[in-house]
Design brief:
Elements (H helix, E strand, L loop, with lengths): L1 E3 L5 E5 L8 H10 L5 E6 L11 E7 L2 E7 L4 E6 L4 E8 L4 E2 L3 E5 L7
Antiparallel strand pairs: 1-2, 2-3, 3-4, 5-6, 6-7, 7-8, 7-9
């Protein structure tokens, strides 16, 4: 899942690192073995003269699986399914950055937001 912010940047989560050779097998392995290789990425708006590349903003998540933006209040939320948490970050849309996280919810396995 991905979300575009008002400045044109795109925020998205990657549940787990995998590659074309292992595909779904690696994804399910990250669930079974709770691997801290999920991430939150930011893709800045591309200038017409350059190609934008996604950059990791937060790494080491336990199966990041969902994102929500609340730009009016200045927050970004990430569901960390295998960590059994929803993280809340202060969001700086203009810089494409987030603050240190706070745990908004802890308990069940959140799946998507």
């Amino acid at each position: 899942m991905a979300r575009r912010d008002r400045a044109g940047g795109i925020w998205f989560t990657q549940s787990s690192q995998n590659n074309p050779e292992r595909g779904e097998e690696a994804t399910f392995e990250a669930i079974d073995n709770v691997t801290p290789d999920g991430a939150l990425y930011y893709l800045p708006p591309a200038d017409r003269s350059e190609t934008a590349l996604a950059v990791p903003v937060v790494e080491g998540l336990l199966f990041a699986n969902g994102i929500a933006l609340d730009e009016d209040r200045g927050y970004l939320y990430v569901a960390e399914t295998m960590g059994r948490r929803v993280w809340r970050y202060e969001l700086d849309v203009e810089l494409g950055q987030v603050s240190e996280p706070t745990v908004l919810y802890e308990g069940i396995y959140p799946d998507n937001l």
